[in-house]
Write the C-alpha cells for this entry.
Amino acid sequence: MAFALVFPGQGSQSVGMMDGYGDSSVIRETFAEASEALGEDLWEMVSVGPAERLALTVNTQPLMLTAGVAAYRAWLAAGGPKPSLVAGHSLGEYSALVAAQALSFADAVPLVRFRAQAMQEAVPEGEGAMAALMGLDIEEVRAACAEAAQGEVVEAANLNAPGQIVIAGARAAVERAMTFATAKGAKRAVLLPVSAPFHCALMRPAAQRLRERLLTIKISGPEIDVLNNVDVVVEGDPEKIRDALVRQAFSPVRWIETVTAMAARGLTRVVECGPGRVLAAMTRRISKDVEGGALHDAASLEQMLTELRKE
C-alpha cells in the first residue's frame, strides 16, 4: 500500500472549495484552529468569498495550507493509512511538512501568511508577472527567457509537466519572453492572474525576511519522508529543511522531477490531498508509471480508501 500524498498550492482555491467534504467535524475543527491562529474567520472566508478575497496572496496561502491539512486529517479520521512520502507544490510543501509533523499547524498558519506578505511586498504591484507557456520543453523556455531578459529578470518558475512551464519576472521581460516563446513554437503563452512573480530572483528580499522568521519557528525531523521542491531530495535535518524553504521562495518548483523521483522510488500511486485536481492531472502527464488520484471531496476520499484496501 505504498503511495505518496501531494498537496496543492496557490491556484486551486475557490469559494466553497470545502463544500464537497460535507459537514465533516474534522474539516471544521481544522479551520477553527487556523482561524484562532490568525484571529480571522477562515471558514467564513472560504465559504462566502468573494473570489477576489480568496485570490489575495495573503489569504490564499493560509487558506490552501488549511485546506490541505484539513483534507489530510479527514483522510486519517476515515481510516486512511499514512503515506510513504509527501510533497507539496510550492506553498503545498508547508502542508506536507505539517502532515509529516515536522512543522506544527499552529506555527504554519501565521508563517505562511508572513511568507505571503513578504512575497507580495518584494515587488511593487504591477511590476512583476507570471505566464504559462504551453508546448515547449525546458531548454526552449530557458532560451526564450535568456533572449527576453535584456538586463531584467525572467526565469522558469514552475516546471509543472512536459510542455507546461510557468515563467516569472519583471512584467516587460515576461511579455518579451512570451513573444519569443511563441516564435519558438509555443502553442500558448498566457499571463497568469497572480499578484507577484513567485519563484524567481525577484523574491530574494522575501526569502531573506522568511529566513529570519523561520529562525523563530521550531522544525523537527519529519516522521514521513518529505520530498522538497528546491533540490528534489528528502531532508531529515531541521536546519536543512529550514534552508530549503528559504531557497524555495526564489527557486523554481521542480514538479516534473518530483513526480519522476517518486516513480524511481517505486511509488505507483500519487494522491493529491486537498481541493482541486491540478496535481493529479499533472501526474498523469509526467509519468505513465504513476497513477494520479485526488482526495478533493468526501466521495473521492472514500473511493481512494476502497482502492487502496484492494491492493
Observations:
- The first strand starts at residue 4 and ends at 7.
- The beta strands are 4-7, 85-88, 128-134, 154-161, 164-170, 188-191, 225-226, 269-273, 291-295.
- The chain is about 50% helix and 15% strand.
- The longest helix spans residues 57-77.
